[in-house]
Amino acid sequence: MADWTDCLNFGISVAKRAGEQKEVKLKSSPADLVTETDQRVEKILISAISTRYPQHRFIGEESVAAGERLQLTDSPTWIIDPIDGTVNFVHRFPFVAISIAFAVNKQTEFGIVYSCVEDKLFHAQRGRGAFLNGEPLHVSGQEDISRCVVVTEIGAERDDLALSTLTSNIFRLLKLPVHGVRALGTAAVDMCQVAMGGADAYYHIGMHCWDIAASAIIVREAGGVVTDTDGGWFDVMSRRVIAASSSAVANRIAQVIRPFPCRRDDEEPLQSGGQLTADRKCAGPLMKSDDTNKTH
Ligand SMILES: Nc1ncnc2c1ncn2[C@@H]1O[C@H](CO)[C@@H](O)[C@H]1OP(=O)(O)O
Ligand SMILES: [Mg+2]
Ligand SMILES: [Mg+2]
């Protein structure tokens, strides 16, 4: 079996170096500022990694936003979110992360999440455990949903359908009841909270592979479970994830939440007048046919 430890160690060093890039130049508008900083960090990461590993491929949030095709092949591939928590970053809400996953044959070999403001470095390598600043990490092991803190994200969709699904899912969880529902503004750090036992579960529909790939392996290696939002097999391109302290909690959340259909990350982008449209939009019917079986 190939040993990717050299890549992991290099990934950790570039993530920490990129996390020091706190200087932000004000451009013409807040939107420009965000784009410029996100793009700059992604360029720093990709240029350092590709110089060392010229054969490797990349899936980067900003490269995809600039029109690059999103395709996970069997080649060694780095999946990068240069700034996870861009809205936090702009508002100085203190949870912002660099998320880097590395996959070979479509299997994640390691994940790195550097929560820059907190200076917390989470990492995990397949079969070798999960760590926070070098110390082993463990999920809470909680099995009782009524004793759980559950994390999710509000996301950016503001249409009625998205908002009603989002709020009704939170409503259902609160009515179980769970101990609390939280949202930190970065999916990567949300899931690392599950890995370290600060939260017992995370779920969301609509994140992208770069938001969740690294923290998914960190949760698993910390002893947690990662599933699809229907409780089935987790597919990193599906944009559907539950990360939990136990199978019991993951299954209970899968029973409670209503699905919100999204275009897969590896689906062909929608074409509109020759221009690529934002692939962040969800599409399709609101409910799956089996939705009537869900717990209300
Ligand atoms: N269209 C979108 N707009 C804002 N945040 C999004 C998003 N799609 C995914 N996210 C992610 O959702 C969380 C915030 O709710 C962050 O992890 C954020 O990642 P980002 O900061 O890298 O965009
Ligand atoms: Mg992100
Ligand atoms: Mg980002």
UniProtKB/TrEMBL annotation:
Molecular function via GO:
inositol monophosphate 1-phosphatase activity; metal ion binding
**Residues annotated as region Disordered?**
264-296
Question: Which pathway, per its entry?
Answer: Polyol metabolism; myo-inositol biosynthesis; myo-inositol from D-glucose 6-phosphate: step 2/2
Q: Which reaction does it catalyse?
A: a myo-inositol phosphate + H2O = myo-inositol + phosphate
Residues given in the record as Mg(2+) binding sites? E61, D81, I83, D84, D211
Name a biological process GO annotation.
phosphatidylinositol phosphate biosynthetic process
Q: Where is the composition biased (Basic and acidic residues)?
A: 278-296
According to UniProt, the name of this protein is: Inositol-1-monophosphatase
Q: Name one Pfam family in it.
A: Inositol_P
Q: Which InterPro entries match?
A: IMPase (IPR033942), Inositol_monoP_metal-BS (IPR020583), Inositol_monoPase_Li-sen (IPR020552), Inositol_monophosphatase-like (IPR000760), Inositol_monophosphatase_CS (IPR020550)
Cofactor needs: Mg(2+)
Please give the CDD domains that the UniProt record associates with this protein.
Answer: IMPase
The text of the family note is: Belongs to the inositol monophosphatase superfamily.
Provide the species name: Mola mola (Ocean sunfish)
Q: From which domain of life does this come?
A: Eukaryota
